Amino acid sequence: MLAIWWLLQHPLGQLLLLLLLLSYLDHRYFGVWARVMALLHHRRRIASLRYSVQVNPSDVRAMVELGEHYLRSGDFARAAEYLERALDRGEDSARAQYLLGAAWVRLGRGGEGRDLLEKALAKQPNIGYGEPYLYLIEEAAARRDTERVEELASAVRQFESVEILTRAGHVCRSAGLPDLARQLFDEAINNYRFIPAKMRRRERRWLWRARLGQMQTR
Predict the structure, then answer these.
(1) How far apart are CA 91 and CA 50, in angstroms?
(2) CA 126/CA 139 separation, integer angstroms
């Protein structure tokens, strides 16, 4: 009790308590610090992979990983550059194909991207844990192929991932399909209730985004 009283009475103690509270809230709900550290790791990894490719131009694994890092950071042109180099050098894995297909979809090369994504899924149906379907939905939505979007959304449901369902919902909402989007958001929120407690912090931000999506589609 004396220690708590001292902490409450002194500015340094109050600051310490505030930092402890913020640290708890961030760990429990927000994960900001974890994302900052992930971003720093991401940048260091890009630098390391670029050096590896420079030293060894035949290192297709480094090219594929580098392409994925650029894809995640939104630099789709560079992602495509390294992934194309990997495929030109004989890399034919489902992972490389789906990543390049995703980059091409984002670069406006929808038809080519669709072909590669479908080829990757034919090789390995669970590649990317449902993420290839998100890019296929984007491509089909760009063509206003509502029937195909609905088929792909149905395929996404098999993964039961809060993140994938939420992202698919936002893609469908942006494509002008609010009813389908709302179904995906509802399913994401419902699935969150059944995931293990240790996984909930990682999925919580997707839960919030699903709830936001629900409000936006009412």
Answers:
(1) 18
(2) 19
| Domains of the chain by residue range | 39-125
C-beta of residue 85 within 8 angstroms of C-beta of residue 59: no
Residue 87: CB atoms within 10 A of its CB come to: 18
Tens-digit pLDDT profile for residues 112-164: 999 999 999 999 999 999 999 999 999 999 999 999 999 999 999 999 899 99
φ/ψ of 217, rounded to 5, equals: -110, 10
* Location of structure tokens 């995703």: 102
Q: How far is CA 23 from the centre of its chain?
A: 25
pLDDT cut 70: percent of the chain above it: 82
> Could you report how far apart the first and last alpha carbons of the chain are, in Å?
51
Helix boundaries (H) for the chain = 2-9, 11-25, 32-55, 60-72, 76-88, 94-106, 110-123, 131-142, 146-156, 162-174, 178-192, 197-216
Q: Which two tokens stand for residue 85?
A: 């180099």
Average pLDDT, the chain: 87
pTM of the model: 0.82
DSSP 8-state symbol, 90: T
From CA 162, how far away is CA 195, in angstroms rounded? Answer: 9
Residues 46, 147: Cα–Cα separation, whole Å: 39
User: What CATH number belongs to 39-125?
Assistant: 1.25.40.10
